[in-house]
């Protein structure tokens, strides 16, 4: 960096990533650098630009108006540079072939198909085939080599699977029968889960996801009633509509799965539902990593 602007592309990437994540740790993890490296780059930029780019407290990180203007000015140019580099790499390495991508939700499918369209535009020799992942076998196709990449819920922490970047962070909602008392509230809390049976997967999900989406106790230790089990996602909609239980979902599920007999009530507390890219721990080819870069751009 020099007075009044950026010179090193990596420093620009760090600034733009922090402007999006608003978290030093997540930015460092995403770019595979240390948090101290992120802090050093930002402090150096602020000194040389002559003003603060971020407001930092012990709990939050926010862009200043100066930081917002810099982000808005840099982002289009950075995207154009990255695309030019991608095209050069594709030409040099001959990026082409078929990429098999799995997804666990309709909104993950939307993102995968948008990325496929961009990839085909940049690299006409590429073909992307998509496939829905079932909850009873969330990583089987990936581990068997039937898929190259997968977009689904985090965290995974499963042997043989590598977690890539987070693409979506979604507020959670409780999907309940429309005639249940909770359906008429503006929001629910994690403690409200003690008041309704929670529908559960009949197997396949790793403990990290099962504990997050199907807890057995509330934060205060109250037991959560065990509702019926399911194998495939459409069963959950039918079970909830029949009044047999509730399910924790991403809030945007209301736009995709609304039907008579079901209500979606947002949580006022609790973690988000995060979705990201997964690939086999054995590694990936250039085409797959190029597709991941496109996904990150689109998010």
From TrEMBL:
Signal peptide: none annotated. Coiled coil: none annotated. It comes from the Bacteria. One of its GO terms (molecular function) is DNA binding. Keywords: DNA-binding, Transcription, Transcription regulation. Residues 7-64 form the HTH lysR-type domain. GO terms for cellular component: protein-DNA complex. Belongs to the LysR transcriptional regulatory family. This is DNA-binding transcriptional LysR family regulator. It comes from Asanoa ferruginea.
